[in-house]
Prior knowledge:
- It is built from eight helices and seven strands.
- By secondary structure, it is α/β, with parallel strands linked by helices.
- It has a single domain (17-216), classed as Rossmann fold (3-Layer(aba) Sandwich), CATH 3.40.50.
- It has a seven-stranded mixed beta sheet with strand order 1-7-6-2-5-3-4, sandwiched between helices.
- Helix 4 (87-102) packs across helix 8 (209-216) and helix 6 crosses helix 7 (173-180).
- The longest helix has 16 residues, at 87-102.
Amino acid sequence: MSHSMFSMGVAVVLCAASLGAPSALAQPAESVPTPVTLSADDLHALVPQLRNGGYVFYLRHGVTRLDQQDRQPVAKDDCTTQRNLSDEGRRQAETLGAAMLKARIPVGRVLSSPFCRCLDTARLAFASAEVSEDLYFALGLTKLERQAKGAALRRLLAEVPSAGSNSVLVAHTANLEEAVGFWPKPEGTAILFRPDGSGGFRALGRIPPDAWAMLVGR
């Protein structure tokens, strides 16, 4: 993918004022085409830009165990009631963190869903994370609750990171689908966003988990 193609991105026009209005919760999510998939070469080419900060990574938690399911109701503070990371998922998170560290990509704020698989992903990759109820798993919530999570996520995606840093949001498939209309597949996938400073953002690319491993190997 060329630099010009990346720079074009996918425009998402959002009004910050309307997102804050209660009527916005009754509206369907903004539909955004699934962004292009970035290869390891694409990701490597973007490193100089990422080092300057200003981007938001939406990271779906790493690969989870096939022999577990979330119980109903889920106890947020009890990982035994949840589907958790597999050994592969834990390795994915560690590799992602190592790749960003090696590439000197600065990470500032890290927000995570309260679910254990997300918190473990965030902590393995970045050592620490701040729990955000805005990122609580949207699947299983009421329609209005899901729409509220989508609106909250759009605000987070539009939030410009602190100077010289990038932000990371670690959460689930359903939340991003509510916010922009597509799912981050498979587990461990990251979607790169660029806030525009005016209450909107662009979806720039999908980063598959194996791209990080290739970046570490360079």
